[in-house]
Design a protein that fits this description.
450 residues, alpha/beta, Aspartate Aminotransferase, domain 1, Aspartate Aminotransferase, domain 2, five-stranded mixed β-sheet, four-stranded antiparallel β-sheet, 19 helices, 42% helix
């Protein structure tokens, strides 16, 4: 004989329900309990102690009120991982963003005159100082920056671009598509592997608005190749009375060769070579929040700022506050590798990574005693389209055995999810991005799991 389910009134009078009511509120708690009772009646599962129902309600409520986005351990081997949020920001930048979001700020208010100000004024002078540009502005990401520039300078007109630069980045996002949405008309020139100056010259006509150069991201073309460098393309554009647009994508503000990393083109180099407007990201090699930075001559930037789309694409006060903090770090380049997390991870010594991997291997072996655990050399990649063929020496903890997908899911289900990769019949946990200050948290949850 089946027992009736406890009533909602009875459940609400229990000590456990009192805890749920205090934490989640009466409306949500009652809704969760009613839903569980209804499901059990429909499934004819009547024999259920009150505590089981309350425990189930607690799980439902915790899931409803919990945050979907949470910090993870990035052990994938990709430092600027697009799916994991790209660059980690400096703590002081995150704090500046939080402070700005908590209270009113002088975002568009000139404290000196008491009149309306411009939000770009908080960061444009810094960007100009760091790049050598005459003027600068910012929008919410680099794709938006490219779209805004093209919509301003080339609406309804043609823009010649080398076929070898018509890139596709993450999420099937393609340069031709953004050009189309911007209202510009793509004019392909050259071939996939070779484009010459004459290809651009022959493409210029009365309906040409600008020339465009796109930095190759996520891939490299090698072998029998030819491309037109910025300075040569700028001369072609200027001889025809046209502006040159250069999209650098990840756009580092400094020469990475200073830290023995492969060189990545910088905005200052592109401007010095004759580009009239340059676009690049704020959340990749620059190491800041998601943003699209636009630098160039005053006339072009003024036209861009006058475009009504600029308002739709502008940054909020939190990201402006964070970006300002990050840009100021570049004023002290001698300490940048220590103060900028993205650069610190990219320049982390291999010996330090090896030591971390050895410590973590011991913990993982205790947590998963039935699996073979080893420390193996590997290669990290920079990520987010930056230097796609250049890899950095690193060390990983690998876990073998069967059911690797299940093990990977277990790691991802931890309080702070552990995200690695599966390759060569093992799970690889690249320790480049697991810094000593995070090891204690990593160890604590492994201990709990074991």
């Amino acid at each position: 004989m089946t027992s009736p389910l406890p009533s909602l009134d009875f459940l609400l009078r229990t000590p456990t329900a009192a805890v749920l009511l205090a934490r989640f509120g009466r409306t949500a708690t009652i809704a969760a309990l009613r839903g569980i009772l209804a499901d059990r009646r429909e499934a004819r599962r009547f024999n259920a102690p009150a505590e089981d129902i309350l425990d189930e309600a607690a799980d439902v409520l915790a899931a409803s009120f919990g945050r979907s986005q949470k910090p993870v351990f990035n052990l994938t081997g990709t430092v600027l991982h697009t799916n994991l949020g790209r660059s980690p920001m400096p703590p002081e930048a995150a704090e500046a963003a939080a402070e700005a979001m908590r209270s009113p700020t002088n975002l568009e208010f000139d404290l000196r005159t008491g009149r309306r100000g411009e939000r770009d004024d908080h960061i444009a002078p810094l960007i100009c100082r760091l790049t050598g540009a005459e003027a600068a502005t910012v929008v919410n990401n680099n794709a938006a920056a490219v779209m805004l520039v093209l919509n301003t300078l080339a609406l309804g007109k043609k823009v010649p671009v080398s076929r070898g630069e018509l890139i596709e980045i993450g999420g099937a996002f393609r340069v031709p598509d953004i050009m189309s949405r911007a209202g510009a008309i793509l004019h392909e020139v050259g071939t996939t592997n070779r484009t010459h100056p004459r290809d651009y010259v022959q493409a210029i006509g009365p309906d040409t608005a600008a020339l465009m150069r796109v930095h190759q991201a996520n891939y490299a073309i090698e072998g029998f190749t030819a491309s037109v460098p910025t300075d040569a393309l700028a001369r072609i554009a200027h001889d025809a009375g046209l502006p040159l647009i250069e999209d650098l994508g990840s756009g580092s503000l400094v020469d990475l060769a200073r830290w023995d990393l492969p060189h990545e083109p910088t905005p200052s180099e592109a401007l010095a070579a004759g580009a009239d407007v340059v676009t690049f990201s704020g959340d990749k090699l620059l190491g800041g929040p998601q943003a699209g930075l636009i630098v160039g001559n005053k006339t072009v930037i003024a036209r861009i700022n006058a475009n009504p789309l600029k308002r739709a694409l502008r940054l909020d006060k939190g990201r402006i506050a964070a970006l300002e903090v990050v840009l100021r770090l570049y004023l002290d380049p001698d300490r940048l590798a220590a103060t900028l997390p993205a650069l610190r991870l990219l320049t982390r010594p291999a010996a330090d990574i090896e030591a971390t991997a050895q410590r973590m291997a011991a913990l993982l072996q205790r947590a998963f005693p039935d699996r073979p655990v080893a420390v193996e050399p590997c290669r990290s990649q920079i990520g987010s389209g930056a230097l796609p063929v250049d890899l950095l020496p690193s060390a990983a903890v690998t876990l073998g055995g069967g059911a690797l997908e299940s093990l990977a899911a277990t790691l991802r289900s931890m309080p702070r999810p552990v995200v690695g990769r599966i390759a060569r019949d093992r799970i690889w946990l690249d320790c480049r991005c697991l810094e000593p200050r995070e090891e204690a948290d990593f160890a604590a949850q492994l201990h709990a799991a074991s």
